[in-house]
Amino acid sequence: MRKLLVYLKYYKKESVLAPLFKMLEASFELLVPLVVAAMIDVGIPNRDGSYILKVSGIMVALGVIGLVCSITAQFFSAKAAVGFATKLRHSLFAHVQSLSFSELDEIGTSTLITRMTSDINQVQSGVNLVLRLFLRSPFIVFGAMVMAFTIDVQAALIFVVAIPLLSVVVFGIMLVSIPLYKKVQERLDRVLGITRENLTGVRVIRAFHREDAESERFASGNRELTAMQNFVGRITAFMNPVTYVIVNGALIWLLYTGAIRVDQGILTQGEVIALVNYMSQILVELIKLANLIITVTKAVACGKRIQSVLEVENSQKQSVGTECAGAADAAGEKGAPGEKDAAGIDAKDGVCAVEFRHVSLTYRNAGDTSLKDISFKARPGETIGIIGGTGSGKSSLVHLIPRFYDATEGQVLVEGRDVKEYAVSDLREKVGIVLQKAVLFEGTIRENLKWGKADASDEELMEALATAQASEVIANKENGLEEEVAQGGKNFSGGQRQRLTIARALVKKPKILILDDSASALDYATDARLRQSIREMEEKPAVFIVSQRTSSIRYADQILVLDDGAVVGMGTHETLLERCEVYREIYQSQYQEDAQTGGAENGKGE
Fold first, then answer.
1. Does residue 313 surpass a pLDDT of 80?
2. 20 to 30 A from 592, CA-CA: which of 247, 305, 425, 605?
3. Which contacts (CB < 8 Å, 24+ apart) does range 75-80 have?
4. Overall pTM surpassing 0.85 (yes/no)
């Protein structure tokens, strides 16, 4: 938590002025019992109405000045706390964006959402209360004790006994409750995770009639959270009655001692009332301090959880990449026939767009490798088809190219350079990728397409839409490119979303285009036209098509067949039908479907 306070450095003035004005308010509050004592000891016995009015005016003035100081302190503390939370939230979001997929998978989406929202709000409340009360309450407690000594030393000794007892109770309960609040937040994470799964998979749950089972799973997690909250609540609730017992016991002792000393003529009635007021002030402030400590305890627990995320380091070492772009461009230029480049390829063919050299991948905390000893080359303009059974590692393979994950063994090269030598931004500038799940963001179609290229003209956008077979999507919309896109693109069909995400990748004119099962919602004819349009692009990118359909990759220049993370076949469609049993089984399982569409596709000239 202490490390997070660095974000308060932008609000140094507010962080100083807030407690300062609260201390001023507390100083005026400490004067009130003395004014009351003067009224009782001087004004009332002498029946001096003018004196009583004058003293009452002083009390009103002290109250008004204290109120102004309190409001001013509240303004500065709120400004500092909200600003602190804003800076922290921005920093946390930026840090999360910088993490690799490995770290994001390990931490979990629900955990990150909790850290970004609930935890930061809790820390914000803690900072606000600390700036307002952390100095004020102790100041009044010890200030009241000092003022009591100015009135009567013997009576003030009661304060000396009561305050340490109260401190032991308050801070003892705090030490017990801090780790328990951390467990409460962990159970909250679990409940949020269940909630997110249920909302994301609500269609699946209803399709399999699992509503009751999922409701019970949520109720079970909620019961655990409730039980832990009740347990912590009972411990913290113990604070108020104990403090009341100690303070009221001290008041009884004070009244008894005061009565004896008044009878002896050592104290006046007004001074006894002042001592009782000081004890009452201590009671009120300790109750405030107890509530403050409860909030601060939660804030500290939440702050540690936020700090744990900020301390997660990206496992991918980032290159500054100052020379990568120029070197890669130079490597991409064609040389004289017969010359060899660094990768051992004839220079007249140019450098490989992508090359895998004995690449293996093991996900973090996984029991087995996901990819095993994969080697192949893809030149500019070539189409590489990737096919295999579910869980064979198709998506894992293409995710290594833009460096979503790092290969645990071997090398992945883009334009003759290891991807680890590129700055991530430079590498991903060369790659256009369309993931399995078509994701659009709230805004307009134009804004979504410009994710690929911020300064793209309308002509470039329309060209990308035409290539992606999405022109009709725009034509059928009243506002064209300005058509609103709902969150997640829910106001578009699955096929429309897929074509728009493909167009978004094409706008940047990538040198490497990855279509990760991104045409699954398209009919065969549209899929065939899409692949033909991509082949005819002027930029001639190296295209990787991940698909479950043999019809989608049968005309690829090279097809990789994956089985359990290993390449079991590599070659053209005809070659693999003859030599690769896995590919032949996949093809034959789809043969009847392909036979119905094969003639139409052959007519497309692919």
1. yes
2. 605
3. 76/13, 76/14, 76/15, 76/17, 76/18, 76/21, 76/131, 77/14, 77/18, 77/127, 77/128, 77/131, 77/132, 78/128, 79/11, 79/14, 80/8, 80/11, 80/14, 80/15, 80/18, 80/127, 80/128, 80/131
4. no
